[in-house]
Every structure is written in C-alpha cells, then in structure tokens.
C-alpha cells in the first residue's frame, strides 16, 4: 500500500511537504499559544490571501509575471504584515491584541478587492483557500523545505530566548535578552510557516493545524518540551490521515487534516476525564 502511494511523484512531494509542515507548524503554534497570540495565525493567513490574489492578478495582467508563483507573493505580503504586527504591538502597549484584528481586517479587505479585480474566485484561488496537498509542485516543495529549514534554525538558536519571553517577558528583558529582535524574528518565522502551510491545509484552515495539535498536547503534557513533541506527533497523524484520505477517497485534504486534529483533541480530552474524573486542568506548559 505504501509502495503504491510513493510510486507517484505528486504523492512523494505531498508526503514531503506534509511531514515538514507537520513538524514546524505545531512548534510555532506552541509558542503562539503560550504567548496568547494564537489568533495571529488567522490574521497573517488572510494577509497571505491578499498576496496570493495579487500574484494571480499580476499573472493575468502582465505577461512578464506569468512565471510568478502566487505562493511567493503571498509570502511577501505575510512577511510585511508580520512586521506591522510587531509595530502595532509596540504602539498599543496596553492593548497589544488590537494588532491582530487590525491586520486581519486589512488582509480580508485587500484580498476581496484583489480577487474581484482578478474576476472573482477561480480554481487557483480555491486551491489556496482550502488546501490541495496533492497539487504541491516542485517549486512549492522547495519553498516549503527552505521554510522548514529556516524555521528550525531560528527556533533552535533562539529556543531559550523564546521560552523565557513566552513565560516571563519582564525577567527575560532584565536578563539581557533582545526582546524586539527575538519577537521580530519569530514573527517573520510565523509568517513563513503560515505561507508554506497554505498548500497543505489552505488559508482558511491553517490556524487549525497550528493550534489544534497544541491544544491536544496541553491536555496531557507535564512540561513544555513534552507538549512540543506531542504537538508534532498529533500534527503528523493529522497530516498523514489527510494525505491518505485525499489519495484513496478523493476527500479534501485540508478539511480532513483539521477534522482529524479535532478528533484527536476530543479523544485526548475525553480520555483524560475518564482517567481522572472531574479534572478540568490542562497539562503544564
């Protein structure tokens, strides 16, 4: 069965893309959840939609941009928005969560305008909205690989700083950690991971892959490191299930991945209550 799946080139690319995204997305998501910024994934995803629409519009209007991959233009928009998020968070120090709805609203508004300028929704836009893991091309796979490597390097090199800032920012700053630099680097990594994930689960569902495995892991994890590994495990199960469903049943891969993540969360939460009746606490972060 596995040999049959891997016999096809598009399945090999889909599997590679899914495994990479299934590793980096929950790792990034865990830091976002701990910092209570999980909704930033939705905001940047909608800005990415604007970038994708802009890329499709450029392809249609200008022959010189025919070779432009909309994923690249989406990445440019997402990276730019991540910088604005950090600027807005510094501007509204007492209301830092305001940055998220501002970017989210702007991303949706610009996306709608650009899509209408490109004569509405088409197959290309739908693929980015809902995900199409089996349609991952070779150039897109290289973008995903590059994003995975870069995200992994940043998180490995700045793991202690990110951990300290996530749990006690004031003490971390007093100890000499460059808060602004670390926050900016992490925001850029989040933007890259979200853009790379849209081919796997789609713009509308990317926040589910980032947060749902983390939510399940926090139910049973007893440490931050354990939550990290469990998040990756749950994400891999979800991605591989979605890939198998897309291949054998012709189901939408993005929707299946998110639904499996929801089922995992419900199973973990339900199992925890059966083992420890009356317990409403989540695992330690």
TrEMBL record:
Any Pfam family the entry gives: ABC-3
Q: Name one GO biological process term.
A: response to zinc ion
Origin: domain of life: Bacteria
Single GO cellular component term = ATP-binding cassette (ABC) transporter complex
So where does this one cross the membrane? 14-34, 39-58, 64-86, 98-121, 141-159, 180-198, 204-221, 228-249, 255-275
Q: What is the name of the protein in this document? A: Zinc transport system permease protein
- PANTHER family xref list: ABC-TRANSPORTER METAL-BINDING PROTEIN, METAL ABC TRANSPORTER PERMEASE
Q: Which family does it belong to?
A: Belongs to the ABC-3 integral membrane protein family.
Enumerate the UniProt keywords alphabetically: Membrane, Transmembrane, Transmembrane helix, Transport
By its UniProt entry, which CDD domains does this protein fall under?
TM_ABC_iron-siderophores_like
Name its species: Melghirimyces profundicolus
Give compartment(s). Answer: Cell membrane; Membrane
Report membrane topology: Multi-pass membrane protein
